[in-house]
Amino acid sequence: VRCWQFRQPTAIHRASRPTRPDKARRLGYKNKQGICIYRTRVKRGGRKRLAAKGICYGKPKTSGVNQLKFQRSLQSVAEERVGRACGGLRVLNSYWVGQDAVYKYYEVICVDTAHKAIRNDPRINWICNPVHKHRELRGLTSAGKKNRGMGKGHNYTKVIGSSR
Predict the structure, then answer these.
(1) 85-105: per-residue pLDDT in tens?
(2) Are 69 and 47 within 8 A, CB to CB?
(3) Residue 50 clears pLDDT 70, i.e. is over it
(4) Are the beta carbons of 106 and 78 closer than 8 angstroms?
(5) Do the Cβ atoms of 148 and 163 come closer than 8 Å?
(6) Does pTM top 0.70 for this prediction?
């Protein structure tokens, strides 16, 4: 029933409250002015190569059309789409809320950095700095970091910023 409800509105829409309040709070959500939830859906499945008439030129390694997988997770794609749609908001984090045969549904926690309640709160006002503009487009949210191969500890000592 829940997935049916998620399917009805537009692909990106404002949710009045988080579907999973426990998860949202663990990821930094607070029920206060300036913090809002956007629900979005992303098509499931692999990524098909855009190739005219299915012809891929070049070496045989590049010849596939169908069984290709997108490098980033669907969750980071969902964050990116919300970040583009809501340009004035900063993407804090996101979490899974459901899936059916066609879509995966995510809720994205967004912060309005122009709001005084956010600017005056020392726990969250770090996100008001201009270096945090469009974190989701640069792989700085937790979903984006996962597929950059960034981490902490002895396994990650040789990782350079862009390589894995």
Answers:
(1) 999 999 999 999 999 999 999
(2) yes
(3) yes
(4) yes
(5) no
(6) yes
Q: Look up residue 95 and give its amino acid.
A: Y
Contact in structure between 15 and 37 (CB atoms under 8 Å): yes
- Which residues are registered as beta bridge partners of 90? 111
- For residue 151, the Cα-to-chain-centroid distance in whole angstroms is 18
CA-wise closest residue to 65 among 76, 79, 77, 53: 53
